[in-house]
Protein: Chromaffin granule amine transporter isoform X3
Organism: Phascolarctos cinereus
Amino acid sequence: MAEGGKRVPKAGAGGGICGTPAGQHVTDCVPIVPTFLYATEFKGASVSETLPFGSSAPGILHNADFSSIFSYFDNTTMVVKGSKHSENEWMNGTFSTLSPQGIGPSSAPRNNCLQGTEFLEEENLRVGLLFASKAIMQLLINPFVGLLTNRIGYHIPMFAGFVIMFLSTVMFAFSGTYTLLFLARTLQGIGSSFSSVAGLGMLASVYTDDYERGSAMGIALGGLALGVLVGAPFGSLMYEFVGKPAPFLILALLALMDGALQLCILQPSKICPESSKGTPILTLLRDPYILVAAGSLCFANMGVAILEPTLPIWMMQTMCSPKWQLGLAFLPASVSYLIGTNLFGVLANKMGRWLCSLIGMLVVGTSLLCVPLAQNIFGLIGPNGGLGFAIGMVDSSMMPIMAHLVDLRHTSVYGSVYAIADVAFCMGFAIGPSTGGAIVHAIGFPWLMVIIGVINIAYAPLCYYLRSPPAKAEKTAILNQECPMETKIHGMQKSQRNFL
């Protein structure tokens, strides 16, 4: 077995599977889409015409036909009946000419906050379906990608994923309607499927030792966390001050650099099929231990998946948050996820990955229950930080366990099992946003958080069954000969449990 240091270039490129460009592409959309649709499609009763930031205000102010103007920059409504104020007063926001029945300054923010409430409630459904379209497409494509990687290897599918993601990013930059955004998001799901399944499978095949594999996957998931960390704040700030195309065009440039690295390091023109035939995906789906691990990935990530479309809209309704805050709200989750994946990629192997995942799901549930208690963006720091850290615990524990279960109970070919892992991940991101918007519309955002939080807490005890999964008889003999470090894996098997 080659030294770990010699494999680092391959793993580094593999980390790009879910690394910065891919992860940032996903989260750039989170703060941009709700506000973009709101700005382009909302027609409020008190708004006679949309006023883009930077428009020439004096001409508008001297036009008596306008009774009020809604500013998307700071979420304020200006009533300008016959006003003759100067341009400086408009730009500085130092006046608000009121109608004869005028509204006091103290009540203005609340009225502005409720501007377009009905539209925002309906937008929950549309934004949720838009976000879910990526995960739904991944669900459909993943099984085929798993079979493809078993036949031709991991390098070509990874590069194909890069090409598709690049096209999707450019399409996002120039999409001006909901339909085009939906198509771009769907295309993004196809690219993500190729990149994630091939990348994780490549890491599992290169790092055969369980300890090294956990560390490598922790680094790869840290690449995802870095993309998430930069994506949402970067997207919201660029959209606020530069415009919608800017963040996606910059991201497309980064994706080109990632593609160049893949060409240099991975040589994706080479076909490298697996030496042995992998276990059929239907056989893996009948393995109860793989299903428990997949369920843990699904429900833990469903928490943040539900927040992506619903939290920004809830903040717009209840906190009157400007656009740049909608992305920054996810910053604590991103930072803590980065810490959690890198820390528990190594630590989980020592404390037991089943225990790490169990604790993580309990913390996910508790954090979600605390989100509706926030009164402003600062109140979201604790819940979102705990949520990101806990999901990092679950992901960095369950991803290596999936490969370990295949080594222990099936043939050591990893394309199909990571197709299952990615399907589980995507189910969370498909079911979460698509149903979350409907639930918010029916019973409200706080009850949505209660439902998904309780589900995570209730599921957590099932992780105990991963404490000491039994090996198949023939695999036990092979592992005793080829893997003398068995005692490092999740502790010694003092007793074997039959989980039906």
Summary: Confidence is low (pLDDT under 50) at residues 1-21, 43-112, 482-500. The radius of gyration is 25 Å. The first helix runs from residue 4 to 15.
